[in-house]
Amino acid sequence: MGACLGVCSLLSCVSCLCGSAPCLLCGCCPSAKNSTISRLLFTIFLFLGTLVSIIMIIPGVEKELHKLPGFCEGSGSVLGVQTNVDCSSFLGHKAVYRMGFAMAAFFCLFAALMVCVRSSKDPRAALQNGFWFFKFLVLVGITVGAFYIPDGAFTSVWFYFGVVGSFLFILIQLVLLIDFAHSWSQRWLHKADEGSAKGWYAALCAVTFIFYAASIAAVVLLYVYYTKPEGCTEGKAFISINLILCLIVSVVSILPKIQEAQPHSGLLQASLITLYTIYVTWSALANVPSKHCNPTLLVRNSTGSATATEPLTAWWDAPSIVGLVIFILCTLFISLRSSDHPQVNKLMLTEESGAGAGPGAEEEGGVRRAYDNEQDGVSYNYTFFHLCLLLAALYIMMTLTNWYRPDESLQVLSSPWTAVWVKICSSWAGLLLYLWTLVAPLVLPDRDFS
After folding, report:
1. In which band, very low, low, confident or very high, does the pLDDT at 129 lie, cut at 50, 70 and 90?
2. Is the distance from CB of 35 to CB of 114 less than 8 angstroms?
3. 363, β-bridge pairs
4. CB distance 396 to 52 below 8 Å
5. Are the beta carbons of 12 and 28 closer than 8 angstroms?
6. Buried/exposed code over 226-249 (b: 16+ C-beta within 10 A; e: otherwise)
7. pLDDT in tens, 179-199
């Protein structure tokens, strides 16, 4: 009897997995907007690819990858290196690049297919919101094909695609972070106005203090571990410049004219941006290709050995782990909610919170089902959403490989200065973007920046 019920339950989910209908009456879907479910499922695809990539760079698994037919032995070259070089130390790096390419190709395909979809009445919307089983098969097929891409110049070229994509995704992270900080501050100040003002203001001060204290402690540690009295000029300059820029935006955020134009602007937002900037600086310094200035530098050579100042348990470090956590939070943020600010929604091509809510969920026997809330218009731009996931796939590919690549001799997998400059420039771009959100109402008084 239990087996029969299990089979019936499984069959009830077939329309979700294989049908073109957007799970309107499917018992296996939760009560939610159809647009939210679709975004969440695509994000789960991205997370599955990320999980596979993480598994492939686990040392024990990485050593087994050479058993894949033609993946290492027998190929014309390995990362551009001739076949007389042992590629065992590059297998995890190579596998993550193939997985990143597969995910990027998958989301690029859907970005192209969903161009100019205006509502769920467009036949292509059914492809966006249904056929999940077949879409999973497509992703698996692209992944299998990616592992048969000849080496040649693929890794070297794909590295630069990853660099550009990662830079753009870091900017998206900064936009989301700034929006989150503004929303956080506004909600707490609004609750303070409604009652118990002392408690909410004390919470704001406490959180702000914690963020600034963590930032100061991190700056001290960066000076201690990533600079030396002799040399390491670049590291000293990067830390000092970002520290000064963080002080500037913090002071600007509490200037009287800024407060008059934006009453909800304050040190909470500035402290969060400061903490994130220090993290990006740390991540950049962890890629400096000098053991003298970078105690966490790892170099892998063609014999499969790894050298570092500390014993390593995996082919990624603490900044990469933090980057992975931020990646997960940002992609979930993109998938599950819209901004409270119209300007951010315009920038991210999404509707305001609650827009396109539709008449409500269909009910069967008192149980609410997922419903189509996009008959009159899509609640987010399908193409832009897939492009964001494409950039996220490139970002996580670079994060899991530490932004490393083969050097000019094609004998050593090491960190290039390209990674350092991309991260530092992204931190400067983020600070300038936040500074613009502060001064824009004064520079352009005729525009609505509410």
Report:
1. confident
2. no
3. 368
4. no
5. yes
6. bbeeeebebbbebbeebbebbeeb
7. 888 888 788 777 777 777 777
